[in-house]
Amino acid sequence: MQALPNNVWQDPFTFIAFGFGAGTMPFAPGTFGTLLAIPFYLLIASLPLTYYLGFVVIFIGISTWLCERVHQQIGEHDHPGVTIDEFAGFFVTMINAPKGAAWVILGFLLFRFFDIVKPWPIRLLDEKIANGFGTVIDDVVAGFYSFIILQLIGYVV
Q1: Rounded distance, CA 11 to CA 20, Å?
Q2: Staple partner for 33: which of 55, 59, 81, 86, CB 3.0–4.6 Å?
Q3: How far apart (Å, rounded) are the C-alpha atoms in residues 58 and 45?
């Protein structure tokens, strides 16, 4: 993993962008970031759908701004430790998800699969858009793919 910025633990913006510290893990920071997103999801899971969607849109906007700010600060695009984008993608995955631990676990696994494998156009977005939006959009699309699969499984089951 690339070196961590010196201010991860001092600067609140960097700390949040690094997934509240999850991005400092020496291996699989994206997975740890997504794991840490779960308790945050549980706090908002019971919101009415319109409020949940509003929260997700605002969160994506704030995440984009945070990622851009931190990338400019450290001089590196899409540092693997920046994991707030994993939160955004997981929140997209869990839009209107069925309730229960099994659905959260399935959402986690689906999101990690699509975020790691990066099927079209996720990889293209990840490689071609080099700003805060580019950092977040590939995770949002991975979350959307995961959302579709989760909803289909929920419909069938």
Answers
A1: 11
A2: 86
A3: 16
* Sequence spans of domains, the chain: 28-156
- The number of helix segments (H) and strand segments (E) in the chain equals 7, 0
Residue 59 tokens read as 């969160």
This model's pTM is above 0.70: yes
The answer to whether residues 137 and 129 touch, using CB atoms and an 8 Å cutoff, is yes
Q: What percent of the chain has pLDDT over 70?
A: 96
Query: Residue 101 and residue 104: Cα distance in Å, rounded?
Result: 5
Supply 93's token pair: 């995955």
Sign of the C-alpha dihedral, residues 89, 40, 44, 15? Answer: negative
- Cα distance between residue 143 and residue 87, in whole Å: 10
**pLDDT class of 137 with cuts at 50, 70, 90:** very high
Quote the CA–CA distance of 99 and 14 in Å, as a whole number.
32
Residues 15 and 35: their CA atoms lie apart, in Å, by 16
Q: What is the pLDDT of residue 76?
A: 77
Cα–Cα distance for residue pair 18/12, rounded to 1 Å: 10
Q: Residue 108's pLDDT band (boundaries 50, 70, 90)?
A: very high
